[in-house]
């Protein structure tokens, strides 16, 4: 089975997930958090750095539990940004995406 390439938004969502998890981990080591979630430290490293932008649901759920986050919190922080209204100007410093 061939997997479709990820869209730029899917990659950005994975990067946001990694940022949220890294921030929630705080001063705890990757090894400690990964062990608590039942995953490898390398898997956590790939998720935090965006190299694994679409981790499995149960992996994300286990990490959320280990870090004291709710799935709702993760969804709020990682959901795609709303699309700009037609004819509106992009935010300063943000390049518009082209298809």
Describe this structure in words.
The chain is built from five helices and no strands. The longest helix has 18 residues, at 8-25. It is globular and about 50 Å long. Helix content is 54%, strand content 0%. It is mostly helical.
Provide tags for this entry.
5 helices; 99 residues; single chain; mainly alpha; globular
Distance between the termini: 25 Å
What is the residue-averaged pLDDT? 87
Shape: globular
From N to C, what is the helix and strand string? Answer: HHHHH
Number of helix segments?
Answer: 5
Strand element count: 0
Brief rundown of the structure:
This protein has 99 residues and is mostly helical. Helix content is 54%, strand content 0%. It has 5 helices and no strands.
């Amino acid at each position: 089975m061939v997997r479709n390439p990820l869209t730029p938004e899917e990659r950005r969502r994975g990067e946001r997930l990694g940022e949220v998890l890294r921030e929630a981990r705080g001063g705890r080591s990757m090894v400690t958090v990964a062990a608590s979630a039942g995953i490898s430290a390398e898997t956590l490293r790939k998720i935090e750095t965006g190299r694994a932008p679409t981790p499995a649901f149960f992996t994300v759920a286990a990490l959320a539990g280990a870090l004291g986050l709710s799935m709702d919190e993760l969804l709020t922080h990682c959901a795609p940004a709303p699309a700009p209204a037609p004819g509106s100007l992009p935010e300063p410093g943000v390049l518009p995406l082209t298809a």
